[in-house]
Amino acid sequence: MSLILAIESSCDETSAAVVDSTKGVISNIISSQYFHKHYGGVVPELASRAHIKYISQITTQSLNNAGITIKDIDALAVTSEPGLIGSLIVGANFTKGLAIRYQLPLYPINHIEGHIFSGILENQSIEFPFISLVVSGGHTVLFKVNSFTSYDVLGSTIDDAAGEAFDKIAKMLGLQYPGGPVIDKLAKSGNAEAYNFPRSMMHSGDYNFSFSGLKTSVKYFLAKNFALGIQEQELSNLAASIQESIVDVLCSKSLRASIEYGVRDIVIAGGVSANSRLRAKMEFELIQHWKKFYAPKLEYCMDNAAMIGFIAAKKHEQEIESGKKNFTLPNLRFKVSANSLRTRIIK
Ligand code: KG4
Ligand code: ZN
Fold it and tell me: N or C: at which end does the chain have fewer Cβ atoms within 10 angstroms?
């Protein structure tokens, strides 16, 4: 049995978790930076500064909630990529400091790898291989997961991520950032068949996605039909119709992948996996095909350190089993990609 302290700070959530390799998640504290909504998106510089301000107290709170101190910890984990570069550096340097001070092994963990397994943190009866759909503000990727260490990318978005589409379209509708939860709520009182928006690439024959066409289509539709404003019921109808077109594509490709690869279990993860219509439609469609559907509880849909600690716990147990005793501090190198430099302000 090992206890892992994990830190996640890749975007606008500062999170710390304690994960027990046998019992699972013991504590998971998430502090969300709600102030970004005033800017219409995540401002990287402000995000980094808020991480600096809260990371220490969130970590202490996580250890306190677990009823332990740092001296009980066997290994550390931190999100190393992808993400906003300044935000990642805060988490990485903080965790590196702890590793040096307390002489603990440190596991750099890929954020998407964390999301892949976040749907099974509480439900480990899942069967390998399974299909994992990671849908967030920055990513839309479909994986076939063969084991805790092996996965194939079946497809991904060729332009906007699904969450990005929700956020950008919400902005066009005059709604607040982040747009996904607002559209989800409005859609509940709307008619999803009121308008027919494109389901891009739904029948493309591969597992890639595209959401920028939907964004453009909504833009022109609003300019043509709602130039003078949108009334309340129409706003709900638009929200429901737009949401349905995104959800249809996500469901259809996930189901097709599970059929083509003969896989029983399908997991969704990432911020968009909180979408109530996506969860309901997946459940409904998959049951018809004798498939099993898993979705994380809401705390694990958003960015969280529990998913990072979960992967690190698996890696640490494997290394202990293989007889590894001496751990050296990893060289956390950051790939400065276009994505990590992206300012997530929705224009
Ligand atoms: O995984 P996440 O917290 O951060 C990233 O790594 O991006 O995902 C945030 C994204 C945002 O685009 C947000 O609008 C979307 O998840 N989101 C939702 C819902 N809740 C959050 N999208 C649709 N429906 C929701 N209920
Ligand atoms: Zn994420």
Answer: C
- Give the CA distances from residue 319 to residues 19, 282, 327, in Å, rounded to whole numbers and listed in that order: 17, 37, 10
What's the CA gap between 241 and 235, in Å, rounded? 10
Q: Point out the ligand 1 atom lying closest to the alpha carbon of residue 243.
A: 23
CB atoms under 10 Å from CB of 199, counted, come to 16
Q: Give SS3 for 198.
A: coil
User: Over the stretch 151-195, which tens digit does the pLDDT of each residue have?
Assistant: 999 999 999 999 999 999 999 999 999 999 999 999 999 999 999
pTM of the model: 0.90
Q: Is 242 in the pocket of ligand 1 (CB under 6 A)?
A: no
CB-based contacts of 182, cutoff 8 Å, min separation 6 = 170, 175, 176, 239
Is the pLDDT at 336 greater than 80? The verdict is: no
Q: How far, in Å, is the centroid of ligand 2 from the Cα of 189?
A: 28
DSSP line for 235-258: HHHHHHHHHHHHHHHHHHHHHHHH
Length of the chain: 347
